[in-house]
Specification:
elongated; Arc Repressor Mutant, subunit A; homodimer; two-stranded antiparallel ribbon; Rossmann fold; 2 domains; 9 helices; 8 strands; about 210 residues; DNA-binding
DNA sequence: GTCTGTGAAGAGGTTCACAGCC
DNA sequence: GGCTGTGAACCTCTTCACAGAC
């Protein structure tokens, strides 16, 4: 398959989400409409979409549902099969807030397990998701073919836990801790904690907010 | 001041965090050590640092503390004055998990207020941070000179709430909802919810995790 | 010798501008 | 008229490679 540049991939991910929340599912959407919504130039949007090799939109805008499907197919983020399996590691207030609620519903991911070091905490939580002690990471991750983890442990043990996760087969980590993780090639980390997000906002914009 | 490219800014933000967690505070660090930790090329690291115009590291590596200070100064993310003021909007499980705990401690940001629509919820929460009804956004945000918000409300009201926040003076939003927000020029959004983060991992890497 | 700092070359992404289609 | 798709130009960021500092 054609190689899609990473900036384009990221925009397409966002675009896919935007198309989902556009309530006009039967209708069509044009590159300039998307441009108004996102701030990206219309040329960039057309280029991104053309990389998908669908050509469904000649002179008439893109059909919303078809475009969404094409993006999902190209980026391998279709919701089929219950989606890619992931797990939560660390069930403090933040971790357990992702257990309940609708954090994963309707997405291309399914929550297959959650882990904590404390049996106490596990017994207190009431959840549809199976909960385990972290001692069971080694068996549960391969058994359930989990490849993605959401890390919500205390900062001090974040690197150590990341190392363990990687050694058991995890290939992608959403990092909600304040620790910058060091991982081998082939493993992807996405930092999503508040301070990092805030710092990116301030650091990215010309500053002085 | 010289213009620092956005990719460099983002790396410098991360680098600053890495330097903080390097326990050798008096010591020096070289570009190749940083390269090993991050995976970025040593040339890129030297170029990034040279954009700061400090030149403190001729032939001997960089002094850790000085480098950290230089990055913080250039990106305007120094912790001084208690840091930039931000607020949490929406005190469900996720929002309230950021209230307690150490989410902001030691960062360049301070939590100046938190908001929810439900007086019930506000009264139940025990927090050092002042809590308000969202009807008070209009007065509290300008009064406390808050420029950053962490959005944790239900998806359905996220856009509407973002519009209100922007109109009251918020210039940066950390978005923990699953809604892609549309904001005017000059306002920065950083999406940090689980599904977006997971999708980025899958979409960014060559796929098939 | 080791390391930084930086012109110059190279790679990668974005935008322009227009042909082609409806 | 309005819209997509795309070669070509443009621009931005990265890497090379080496002079200069220690």
């Amino acid at each position: 398959m054609k190689q899609i540049p990473i900036p384009s991939r990221r925009r397409l991910v966002t675009l896919s989400q935007i198309l989902q929340q556009l309530k006009k599912n039967g209708a069509r959407v044009t590159s300039s409409e998307i441009s108004a919504l996102t701030g990206w130039s219309d040329a960039t949007i057309r280029r991104d979409i053309s990389l998908l090799c669908v050509h469904s939109g000649r002179s008439n805008g893109y059909e919303v549902a078809a475009l969404r499907e094409a993006i999902a197919a190209a980026l391998d983020i279709r919701a089929g099969n219950g989606g890619k399996r992931c797990c939560i590691v660390g069930l403090g207030p933040l971790g357990s807030s992702l257990l309940s609620g609708t954090a994963f519903s309707g997405s291309a991911f399914s929550l297959a397990a959650a882990f904590d070091t404390s049996m106490n905490r596990i017994e207190l939580l009431d959840s549809d998701i199976p909960l385990y002690l972290t001692t069971e990471l080694k068996t549960v991750i391969p058994a359930k073919e989990i490849t993605l983890a959401v890390l919500c442990v205390p900062d001090q043990i974040a690197q150590e836990m990341a190392d363990r996760l990687v050694s058991f087969g995890i290939r992608g980590i959403v990092n909600y801790t304040n620790t910058i993780l060091s991982v081998p090639d082939g493993v992807t980390v996405e930092n999503a904690n508040v301070v990092t997000a805030l710092t990116r906002i301030v650091g990215a914009s010309g500053s002085s907010l």
